[in-house]
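agent> fetching stored inputs for the nicotinamide-adenine-dinucleotide docking request
agent> found them:
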Amino acid sequence: MHILADTVFSLILSPDGIGASGITMITIIAGFGYNIQEMEKVRVELGDRSYDIVIGSGILEGIGETLKLLGFSPKMALVSNPTVFTLYGERLTDSLRKSGFDLISIQIPDGEKFKNLKSLEHIYDELLKYRLDRSSALIALGGGVIGDITGFAASTYMRGISYIQVPTTLLAQVDSSVGGKTGVNHELGKNMIGTFWQPDLVWVDVETLKTLPKREILAGIAEVIKYGVIYDRELFGFVEVAKEKILNLDKDSLTHIIKRSCRIKAEIVSRDERESGLRSILNYGHTIGHAIETVTEYRRFLHGEAVAIGMCLEAGLSRILNLINDNELSRIKSVIDSYGLPSEMPPDINVDGIFSSMQIDKKAVAGELKVILPEKIGVVRIYKGVTENEIRKLFK
Ligand SMILES: NC(=O)c1ccc[n+]([C@@H]2O[C@H](COP(=O)([O-])OP(=O)(O)OC[C@H]3O[C@@H](n4cnc5c(N)ncnc54)[C@H](O)[C@@H]3O)[C@@H](O)[C@H]2O)c1
Ligand SMILES: [Zn+2]
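agent> prediction call returned; pasting tokens
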């Protein structure tokens, strides 16, 4: 399956690699009325588990023929929620059915609180009822919640089956659909039950962002800014200068930032799939960001908003430790402000709560905390041994 995927997509997407089957593919795709020149591909290299992220505008209907060409077996299940299914479910199911897939559709209610074992059980029930087998695949149509739970279901159903991500939030398109972290929440903690299980394909249609609420778009932008700070000064510069276009959902600008973000995540995941080292740089802004989400009980901020505050504070910490200069620090804060994302710890949040949530209260051994600190835009350091006093300076 993966080798086939590689062949087909390199034929479609490389300018000079058009072989016989490439022409077939072009004809088929042209029949769907979108231009393959506008499709971009990013490859996640993981040996025999490698896969492609395909990014384009208006490509949703192309998925049926693509999956058929890639040799997916006819029985499939689409997992979504009512919000996203109402918007895009029919287009996707039509495309798959026209290409000969025998598709069942499963929906779970919309919301983070339904990313749980009960929803998972519902998915298993449906898969068993309709006799999906080891050769069947799941398709996740939605944001990170749907992607995470579908990936988890795929990784455990009959000891693991294929799945395809069709992410429809910016956060899912630049982050959660790539890298193979799957999971559900437990009452005692978020994402506490999960697996590493890579998808077979990620199919990103940037046009789906047109219906996404602006607040969700901005939360996704926070993760794009993160990629700029940790790895890609040019991407950061682009997010600074192309703000109007990005906020107007200009398709070329969106495709550009999604492609660059996916490329960075793909490279990091290829080098450190299970987060034994390098992958932790993706947590820039998340040490403090997660603590903010915890003390506000996940109600007040979207994840990306909490990460935006976390990125400003962690960059501030880097300044306190003399790792970054004032100019770079203020560029990070300015871009976050310019998008209207929050950049400061709200005054009513109890700082001690933040500390205990970061597990560096007085009982913890000082110096154990690991934080990702920027040295300049595009370069970060995995910093071990930040002390409570150093962090407290941020709030003075
Ligand atoms: N696996 C990973 O590596 C990873 C990384 C980051 C986050 N996550 C997880 O992702 C989840 C958050 O994902 P999210 O931010 O996408 O939230 P989400 O999945 O809850 O989606 C946000 C909202 O947007 C709606 N929506 C989705 N697409 C839409 C569209 N095109 N038009 C209109 N509405 C649309 C959804 O129904 C939902 O109400 C969390 O559970 C988090 O733990 C996972
Ligand atoms: Zn994040």
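agent> quick read of the result: The domain at 213-396 is CATH 1.20.1090.10 (Dehydroquinate synthase-like, alpha domain).
agent> awaiting further instructions
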